Amino acid sequence: MKLAGKVAVVTGAAGGIGAAMARRFAQEGAKGVVVADLHEEPLRALAKEIGGLAVACDVGKEVDIVALATRAEERFGPIDVFCSNAGLVREGDEDSSDGDWALNWSVHVMSHVYAARTVVKKMAERGSGYIVNTASAAGLLTSLPSATYAVTKHAAVAFAEWLAITYGDRGVKVSVLCPQAVRTAMIQGREGGSASVDGIIEPEELADCVVRTMDAEKFLILPHPQVLEYLQRKTSDYDRWLAGMRRLRGRSRDA
Fold first, then answer.
1. Fewer Cβ atoms within 10 Å of its own Cβ: the N or the C terminal residue of the chain?
2. Superfamily for the 7-228 domain
3. What is the pLDDT of residue 194?
4. Which residue in the list 114, 130, 149, 167 is annotated as catalytic?
5. Is 230 annotated as catalytic?
6. Per-residue pLDDT averaged across 199-214, rounded?
7. Mean pLDDT of the chain
8. pLDDT surpassing 80 at residue 195
């Protein structure tokens, strides 16, 4: 899909990956870019910079996603691209609180479900549209520091797969964004972690990859191309991959 003349919505856009994608979509000539986040001040500044619309939104609440889509349609017309991008990261394991598990599920999974409920059937009726769901390389591989993150990011990938299978023959394209480390607030203090093994990229580099992959209409958006090799190793010999990840975890603890 070419972004020129399209209406795009980007959640989690007050900074980092979301802001970079919104700027790049505007540079590509999008008809309108709607940016959404809980953090209103930087969101309004971004909207002013790119000539877009800022909408305060809690992606974990379906009513907020519906209101976001309504505002976008009222301002610019039918939504062509919905980037469900908001995320968070907290270290945790099986003993993480039910509240942490629920928060991760709400932000990393149900936000994508709410977005799809709101826009995907309209896209299918028009015979065109694009859903970009941000997951993580952790959704294809794993996250050593956080079970809550790894599990919900896997679910995000699974839901994107389901959407692609269900709506792909009706003109709706679906991609899932699975980066490793990106220089955003989410990795501050974690720069030496396993996600940084292949380097930390800038949000602008990621946005370039998103636009290229959307143009090619491919499912996996991999700003770190090594992730595909790791995924192939994982699926070709799961037990060997698990053993390697245990060794990596041991080295991380010893560091």
1. C
2. NAD(P)-binding Rossmann-like Domain (3.40.50.720)
3. 53
4. 149
5. no
6. 96
7. 94
8. no
